[in-house]
Each structure stands twice: as structure tokens, then as C-alpha cells.
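Standup notes
- DV: blocked on the single-chain target, sequence here:
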Amino acid sequence: MPFKSILSAALLVIAVSCTAQTITKVEMHLSAFGVESDRWPNIDVAVDFKENTSRCKVSYYHPDYKPFQYKLTKDEIAKVLLLLEKADLKKLKKEYTVTISDQPSSTIKIHTSSGEVFTIKDYGLKGDAPLPELYRIVYKFDTTVK
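- DV (later): unblocked, structure below
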């Protein structure tokens, strides 16, 4: 009997590890469309966890604020991946919204090794954890909001 229990446990571990998904990349878009302040940026972000790289493009509606690009550090990329891996992506809502108008919005696409894509839309940037921390790390509001 103990051999069957060990064999069953081993097969379960193998089955779970074979079906586990790996997050391969995340795409994020912050939109300031409709926001009353021209100081809010539009930001397009792509993070490739396989290559450990990122690309972040910032633009503004106000012509005095020039577009620029930045990259996340290796530590920031690792933190983003850890946040996403810890989150139960299937339990996060697909859409968050606030009742006040003229708020920024974020769209996040999380790609997995199985080909599944989780899309989250957040009008007002008030989504559940880990979204606020993800926004803080990726969108860098302390330097991108003028």
C-alpha cells in the first residue's frame, strides 16, 4: 500500500507541474484620454520575462511635455513577475471601474506559456491587489506625471 500512495503522489506532482502555466510577458497601456490634466501621461509597456527585458514609451497630450522612453531594472522586472505569479489571475476581475469621470485607465494583458491571455481593464486605477503595486512599479508615477 505505501508504494501505491507514493506512486500516486508522484504522478500528481508530475501532472500539476505539466499543467502549470508560466507567465511569459505582460503588456500594459495607461491611457490619459479624457483626464482633465495634461500632466498625465499615456504609457505603453511591454515586459518579456523570457528575455528579462522591458520597453516603456511615454507620451503626453500637452505639447510642452516631450515623449521619452525608459526601461525597468532587472529587479523591477523580477518584482513584477513575482507579483503576477502570486496573484490568482483567474480570480481577478476582468474590469474595474469608478463612478467619477475623467480618470486615467489601464489595460493589462498577461500572456502565459499555455497561450492563455488574461486581460484586465481598470478605469480609475482602483483595481484589487496586486494592481496598485504593479502600477507603482511599472508606470513610475513619481517621474511620469508632471
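- Follow-up: The beta strands are 23-31, 42-48, 53-59, 68-70, 95-96, 105-112, 117-123.
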